[in-house]
Amino acid sequence: MTLIFAHRGFSMKYPENSMLAFKKAAEVGADGIELDVHLSKDKVPIVIHDETIDRTTHKNGYVKDYTSEELKKVHKSKSFFKKDLEPIPTLDEVLNWIVNSNLFLNIEIKNDNINYEGIEQIIIDMVKKYKMEERVILSSFNHCSLETCKKTAPTIDTAVLYNENMFQPWNYAKSLLASAIHPNRKFTSDELIHNSQKNDVAVRPWTVNKPQTMRKFFEENCAGIITDDPELAFKIRSTSK
User: Fold this and answer.
1) If you average pLDDT over every residue of the chain, what do you get?
2) Does the pLDDT of residue 25 top 90, yes or no?
3) How many CB atoms lie within 10 A of CB 197?
4) Catalytic residue status for 49
5) Which of 7, 38, 143, 182 is catalytic?
6) How many whole angstroms separate alpha carbon 132 and alpha carbon 191?
7) Which of 14, 181, 233, 237 is the most exposed place for a label (fewest CB within 10 A)?
8) Phi, psi (rounded to 5 degrees) for 128
9) Annotated catalytic residue, options 38, 49, 143, 194
10) Model's pTM, two decimal places?
11) Cα–Cα dist 118/143, whole Å
């Protein structure tokens, strides 16, 4: 069965990367949560997509320049989320919640633009603290970081994120000892899916929001899809053959 991962939570309807979005995703049938992690000034894993807090909050500046305590006082906001002013969560908060569920967790390590020294070890230590190794996937556009993750924690699954056409990505993933690829949906052909499956490499395209695209990936039996709308994905999967 193709698993449904809620992209930054149920971000189609709720503030992205917020506890509210994660909990709502679980309520509508998501099998897993996808989220992004940066490090604060005091080396705490912070769940937010951008390097700065400019786009999703009323404040400005880089995540790395705020302490975790300072970030806890910053609330997410968007014009259509006025009623849902959600705080920025830490990875520890998310793990503390998700450990008591059956959900999978895809942690995207956001160190492709900023080099957060030691971020892999910090995240892995936290995953181990909650004994979540078997339900966590570590992904990144920084493929050197994935190699570090695999050396640090061989039993935790890793996934190669990419946003372009790639030659035999299943072989590239295997060269990094990664168990999966997470391609942009635009570069996820039937041939890529079939060849990856033949080579025991899972395929989880992103960001899949259109019904016909969801249906295609369900029919191709992809390992998973990453979507802003887990509610729609669940309905389509329930009616797909």
Assistant:
1) 95
2) yes
3) 16
4) yes
5) 7
6) 33
7) 237
8) -70, -35
9) 49
10) 0.96
11) 15
